[in-house]
Inverse folding.
């Protein structure tokens, strides 16, 4: 499970992302057959407070865990990404479907 930050306006570009998976260390140290692939984690909710971020996580479809992060340290740890647009569609139908014939790459 990782984290992303997005721009505030459409098309909601990814601005930054976590370099490594987010997982409480005590979950990683439990007995499993394969410590690389044997985890099922998915976020249930995120609560942003003044100085902390709380993430409620479902673990192994067995129970939930609350992971608390220092907000400033967490945001500073995210890696910025390059959002270079390499293609675009210039025509859309009234129901929001892109006209594939107008798609062009700019490499």
């Amino acid at each position: 499970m990782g984290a992303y930050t997005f721009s505030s306006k459409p098309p909601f570009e990814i601005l930054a992302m976590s370099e490594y998976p987010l997982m409480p260390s005590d979950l990683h140290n439990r007995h499993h057959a394969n410590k690389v692939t044997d985890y099922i984690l998915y976020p249930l909710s995120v609560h942003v407070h003044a100085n902390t971020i709380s993430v409620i996580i479902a673990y192994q479809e067995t129970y939930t865990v609350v992971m608390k992060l220092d907000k400033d340290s967490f945001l500073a740890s995210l890696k910025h990404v390059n959002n270079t647009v390499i293609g675009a569609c210039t025509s859309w139908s009234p129901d929001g479907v892109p006209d594939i014939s107008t798609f062009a790459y700019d490499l």
Q: What stands out?
A: The radius of gyration is 19 Å.
